[in-house]
Specification:
By secondary structure, this protein is mostly helical. It has a domain at 11-152. It is 34% helix and 6% strand. The chain starts with 10 loop residues before the first helix and ends in a 7-residue tail after the last helix.
Length: 217
């Protein structure tokens, strides 16, 4: 998981929220009737670099889920707030709960940090050995595991592959990488391609590179 910046809300969403303001508290799931949902998905995907807001895997927009950070059921007053909306992968929807992750596993549960308005990467680390995600904040660590299930086996394998890829680049030449080289690698992995996409799990790459002894803030 890594933080990202929200874009301004779609004008169509602002207008729709005004139209249904009397129903906001009385009715949940008003977003289902929003007619410009396709453009909403596209904008959410764009601001997130076409990655899931939680696991950082590549998003298939056609199979994506619009996530309410504060759930529609428990916080109906926030259901059309653009800052409350994220885009997530399918999270193994339809699979047994133990194999679900991200929004599909989260359902109506609350978690501490929203990646769209908080520096979540400051409270997250990745294990070199198996690619597992962890936090030194016990409550957040529990949520990463039990609510979001971000240590689902496939996700750990994908993150481990990213760690190995970074290590391969760092070890491709003899000697220790210079601060300038580390900074160039960080810039490269945090850059979007011509389609506006970030590399899947790029937060893992950033974490690994910033652990390097020659990384300079």
């Amino acid at each position: 998981m890594i933080e990202f910046k929200k874009l301004p809300p779609l004008m169509s969403l602002i207008q729709y929220k005004k139209q249904v303001k009397e129903d906001l508290v009385k009715t949940s799931k008003l977003l289902e009737s929003f007619k410009d949902k396709d453009n909403l998905r596209k904008q959410l995907a764009s601001e997130q670099g076409f990655l899931c807001a939680y696991c950082m895997n590549r998003i298939d927009i056609n199979k994506s889920k619009i996530e309410h950070f504060f759930s529609q059921s428990n916080y109906p007053e926030n259901q059309l707030d653009y800052d409350n909306l994220l885009l997530c992968c399918s999270g193994n929807k339809g699979a047994p709960e133990k194999n679900q992750h991200c929004d599909t596993r989260k359902k109506d549960s609350d978690i501490k940090y929203n990646p769209s308005n908080f520096s979540v990467s400051d409270y997250i680390g990745y294990n070199d050995y198996d690619g597992s995600i962890f936090s030194k904040d016990p409550a957040w660590d529990k949520e990463l595991n039990e609510i979001l299930n971000l240590n689902f086996n496939r996700l750990k394998k994908d993150r481990k592959a990213k760690i190995l890829a970074v290590e391969q680049v760092l070890n491709s030449d003899k000697g220790l990488r210079t601060p300038s080289q580390i900074q160039k690698l960080i810039h490269k992995c945090a850059s979007r391609n011509t389609a506006g996409e970030l590399s899947p799990y790029y937060g893992v790459e950033l974490f690994k590179l910033k652990k390097h002894s020659n990384y300079k803030k």
